[in-house]
Design brief:
Helix content: over 70%
Number of domains: 2
Order of helices and strands: HHHHHHHHHHHHHHHHHHHH
Shape: rod-shaped
Strand content: under 5%
């Protein structure tokens, strides 16, 4: 049962008791009970009037009643002043915050409340939004000149001779030779190469047979068709490659020296340098570097799942794990948060009265009365109940005192 209903019930019982005890025979107990109910009714009515007068006009009496409406400006200003300067003062707010360990709250959020996933989601949304909104063509146009200048300054024609000289050294020749023989074997198996060799064999055979009819007869009698010649040629080359691979570099000194001399000669050939530089310059002139960069940005940097996103996830996870496991970082974080909040509270504390005043001004008189009444109604109704109880006790006590006085001095 609501306190208001209890208070009304207490007042109703007091009035009913007062009226009901009129019929009791005269006597001390009956008189005491009757006067107790009378005092309870008076106390309950007085408190009902006082409580009701705060919010409205009881029985239509307007003198010193309806206090909230009549004194709204003054009451509201007092509420604003009390709330902002006392209840929500910077010191009171910070006193509450100082009791909280913000770093532990954040750690618990990361571990138990899905904070890690939420942070990852926010980072993804923010970074993907920023990246996908980038103008790839504009960025490419800004980067292209610097990249082109860097490529122009990259002296490939000077680097390649140094590489060739390094390869000409004995410690690199064996690896190079193994790689070349392996590549040679793969190239021989290429259908395109075999078709090209077959075509050249045909041309050479026809040229050879053109000079003498006997030559064609000899080749035919030996069964040397173009395909047979090709197979023999490839077989001989494969045998040579196999011998080189089996013998190794030490037993192929002629090949070693020949390869070494060729590499060293190429490294000293100025024509090779000029050719490389010329090819590099022409290639850079022909390449649409801006377009290439723009397409690369669109295809690799942007999108819903770009290549850099997993690395960003791993980086954020490392930061979170480092924070969870470091007491010093947590202490610094807690101190920084509280200093930031204190600074902001001091700087913007004047906003609090304005916010409270704005909220209260947005309430009509009836809404303000209802708002206040809902907040203090239970306490005020207890005043009414206590008024009835105290009134009954005082009424019975006075009746006893008067009865004793009459007997003593009657």
């Amino acid at each position: 049962m609501q306190k208001k209903n209890k208070a009304n019930l207490a007042l109703g019982l007091s009035a009913a008791g007062f009226l009901g005890t009129f019929a009791l025979p005269e006597g001390f107990v009956a008189g005491m009970v009757h006067h107790g109910f009378l005092a309870a009714t008076i106390g309950g009515l007085a408190d009902w009037f006082a409580v009701t007068a705060i919010f409205r006009r009881p029985l239509g009496i307007s003198y010193r009643t309806d206090i909230l409406r009549r004194n709204r400006p003054r009451i509201m200003e007092a509420l604003v002043t009390y709330t902002s300067d006392d209840l929500l003062s910077t010191e009171n707010i910070m006193a509450v915050l100082e009791k909280q360990d913000t770093a532990q709250l954040l750690t618990a959020y990361f571990i138990h409340r899905g904070g890690r996933e939420r942070v990852q989601q926010v980072v993804d949304e923010v970074l993907l939004k920023v990246v996908n909104d980038l103008n790839a063509e504009k960025i490419a146009a800004e980067l292209a000149p610097a990249i082109r200048q860097g490529l122009n300054s990259f002296a490939l024609e000077n680097i390649l001779p140094d590489v060739l000289q390094q390869l000409a050294q004995k410690k690199h020749l064996e690896r190079l030779l193994v790689s070349l023989t392996a590549i040679g074997g793969q190239v021989l198996e290429s259908p395109a190469l075999q078709q090209a060799l077959l075509e050249h064999i045909r041309i050479l055979r026809e040229s050879y047979e053109r000079d003498s009819a006997g030559r064609a007869f000899v080749l035919a009698s030996l069964g040397l068709s173009d395909e047979k010649i090709l197979n023999l040629l490839i077989g001989r080359i494969k045998d040579r490659i196999a011998k080189v691979q089996q013998a190794g570099l030490a037993e192929n000194s002629d090949l070693q020296r020949g390869l070494s001399v060729m590499l060293y000669s190429l490294s000293q050939d100025e024509r090779l340098r000029d050719l490389l530089k010329d090819r590099k310059d022409k290639l850079l002139e022909q390449v649409d570097l801006t377009g290439l960069i723009a397409r690369w940005l669109e295809g690799n940097i942007k999108g819903d799942n770009p290549f850099w996103l997993p690395q960003m996830h791993a980086y954020v996870d490392r930061l979170i794990d480092k924070f969870i496991g470091s007491a010093s970082l947590q202490a610094k974080f807690d101190k920084a948060v509280k200093e930031f909040l204190r600074t902001e509270l001091v700087k913007h504390h004047d906003l609090i009265p304005g916010l409270i005043r704005e909220h209260l001004n947005g309430l009509s008189d009836d809404e303000l009365v209802t708002f206040v009444e809902d907040k203090v109604q239970d306490d005020l109704q207890m005043i009414r109940i206590n008024g009835s109880v105290v009134g009954a006790l005082v009424g019975m006590g006075l009746y006893v005192l008067i009865a004793l006085a009459e007997r003593m001095w009657g």
